[in-house]
Amino acid sequence: MTQDTCIRIEGVNKYFDKKSVLNDIRLSISRSEVFGLLGPSGSGKTTLIKLIVGIERAASGDLYVLNEKMPNLSMMHKIGYMAQSDALYSELTAVQNLDFFASIFGLKGAIKKQRIAEVTELVNLSHDLNKLVINYSGGMKRRLSLAIAMLHKPEILILDEPTVGIDPVLRQSIWGELRRLSKNGTTVLVTTHVMDEAEKCDHLGMIRDGRLIAIGSPEELKQESSSESLEQAFLKFGGVTA
Questions:
Q1: Residue 164: pLDDT band with limits 50, 70, 90
Q2: What is the residue range of 69's domain?
Q3: CATH of the domain at 175
Q4: Does residue 166 have a pLDDT over 90?
Q5: pTM over 0.85, yes/no
């Protein structure tokens, strides 16, 4: 692993009930880039994310995050993770959720207060902090989950379909923040099936049926497949003819 490599995956396989869900995944993600996993639902994106975070174990192969072999509990303070399903305490208010997770991340006093204010401003929840989460809409819960993932300024931010249910204006703002974070040294790994979001990534891994079918920048992938769009490129790499 080179000094500039943040995440490295070497020949990873994963099975559920003897069914292959990830097949010989090999991938390197550089520090301070926005890397996208692009693929349809059921392609293996979420499973791969869980392996990187350390929630799941691979059947074979190795995963390294910041030169540490995963899974490794000591890495959790260096990773911000937003899952597809919101892991929130519905009986608490938004600010109580933020306070709880901030304490888990080791934030205290004025720094904790400042970070809560910063992340809630980013996701446009500043005026709804005292509402019970049970009364939040689906989009508001996604925004709160994103705020929690960014609280401790992690070295790596891993987001699984982060903008589902979020309006276009706020989605654009969130992507602007992800770009800013990467420029300041944060590695961002995001899953998506939305082509215009994939265009915003520095590099993409196209995944289908548990296999990485192509890796490169959006422009490289379009040029390599002689495609005008990422959608066309994905279909060509996947062996689908129009």
A1: confident
A2: 5-237
A3: 3.40.50.300
A4: no
A5: yes
